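Hi everyone, sorry if this is the wrong subforum. Our group has a chain we'd like a structural model of before ordering constructs, and none of us has done structure prediction before. Sequence below.
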Amino acid sequence: MEGDCTDGNTPGEWQNFRAWMTRLDGVVPYSLVLGNHDGLGTAFNDTALFNQYFPLANYSGLSGFGGVFESNKLDNSYHYFGAGGLDWLVLALEFGPRDSVLAWANEVVTNHPAHRVIVTTHAHVFTDDTLHGSSPTHFAVPTKDYGR
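Answer:
Right subforum, don't worry. Here is the predicted structure as tokens:
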């Protein structure tokens, strides 16, 4: 899932989202990415509800789980899998990843030189294939419009 798991970051929405996502548990591997509607719509990170309904402890023991940026928070994570004879690394990054998150992600990739990398996030590249916010024509820019 690539963000906006909820519309208003409310307990009822997270409960509903969890009910649907947990149907995949043990069937299909997945990672979760937070969007601006999931508690990241301002410079203040309010991901307590996400981490309450999707606690790190439920995922950290799964095969393919690599690690997280912040302890006890699933907000930014990485995962492994193999396919087509290749080793893969999936980075699941927050909406408009902070510089510190990008530095961490770069370190994770550097530490896994034999892995192909997939990056998932809610907003980082705009529809014109440039960095989101690099043009004055971009809208909903994480740094400008959300203080991220």
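For your construct planning: The chain has a mean pLDDT of 93. The longest strand covers residues 86-93.
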